[in-house]
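Friendly challenge for the regulars: who can give me the structure tokens for this chain first? No prize, just bragging rights.
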Amino acid sequence: MSLVRQTEPVPVDKLGRTHFIGLGGAGMSGIARVLLQSGVEVSGSDARDSDTLRELEQMGARVHVGHAGENLGPAETLVVSSAIREDNPELVEARRRGIRILPRAAALGALLLNREGIAVSGTHGKTTTTSMITVVLQHLGAEPGYVIGGKLVTTGLGADAGVGDAIAVEADESDGSFLMLSPKIAVVTNVEADHLDNYSGLDEIHDNFANFVDRVERTLIVGVDDPGARKVAELARERGKQVLTYGEAADADYRITRIRARGFTTEFTLQTVDGDPIDGTVAVPGLHNVLNAAAAVAVADRLGHDLDVAVEGIADFAGAARRFELKGQGDGVGVYDSYAHHPTEIDADLRATRAALESFSRDSEDEVPLGRVVALFQPHLYSRTRIFAEEFAAALSLADEVVVMEVFAAREDPEPGVTGELITSKVSHERVRYVPGREEAVRTVVELARPGDIVLTMGAGDVTELGPRIVAALSERAEGNGHD
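First reply, four minutes later:
Bragging rights claimed.
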């Protein structure tokens, strides 16, 4: 993957019939869904059939399994992702015919035009924060549109056009595609080094965020606890942008205090500069999720909604797919799935899990032994594994038991000497195992986990498929042991 070429969005009513290559993908299908709801004729193709394709077909899209030039039909606009190869027959045909070709991000940018567009960017927390904004605005009766990277638990959807003025979307910095969005309000959660297969380093990442700041039309809301995001806030002020901040920092405009773990929920107090303290609860664990909640409340406040009701709406958030998502329980072991694939994300999730377990033990009326954290991690990308091996090991050392799988290659070719063992060799304790294969990884986790523990599957690859299998194996173990 590499940085995409910037292309300005086209208003939705000027797109004409729009064809998507890779229509069944999470990112593409969400945009297609919103366009269909907006009255645009949509067609598309994918290499494999899926429930997503059939859902879009039921909504009126013309879908094709397999790629061929004739699939374009009378399309006037073609939408492609950076994963589409240059020799794709539909892309070749579109170029031959001279029809408009838009990167996925430019199609997403079209959805923001003529609406109260809200874009959430940052190295971590984009999906959760965008989801929280959506849920809060729904609680407020604003009926927003949204396009997120995972499905909302409350709706079962990853995208919807909504009927209100506001629409919230994720702004992906990983390949520079967020520079095709022009939101009225933008959130920057944090800025760290990542996606170094695309960027030369943190300086270039900051340069891209500076360009993103220039595209924000009205207000930038920044997580000021993060040094990288604070730097973006300072830059934005120098450029005359309205900047509001959130965090635990004393100078935050939306300051979070009194954070208290209550099992897998977290209580907090929000204090604004000129308002009374407001108590709130978010039904997911961890400081990072409280900060995401503060960003969502700040967005609602800037849109003119009642702040107290916005904080109340945070309690409606029931999570998003792959963001500390409960996969089930078996033999007294809870199994959760996390998209965490960067050391900072792993650190945050493991600390949140530890705090939740300590809360269960502390707040129980009976004496409950402290459960352990069992982490099953699948590294994502050889380059990321090589660059952050020590940081991954430090974060994973927070777990009581660590199982590391082989690297999920995604878009990269293997690198000599870069395997999951590069991480396990650096973990600070001995309760760590390098288990490359999926079957063996499931067996190992089930052997390690005991009643009261939490298993957390972590990574951006297909490790997400293992959670239900671990639950099933644990349940079989319970039956074999005569447990309920």
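The two ends are 49 Å apart (CA to CA). The longest strand covers residues 254-262. Your move, everyone else.
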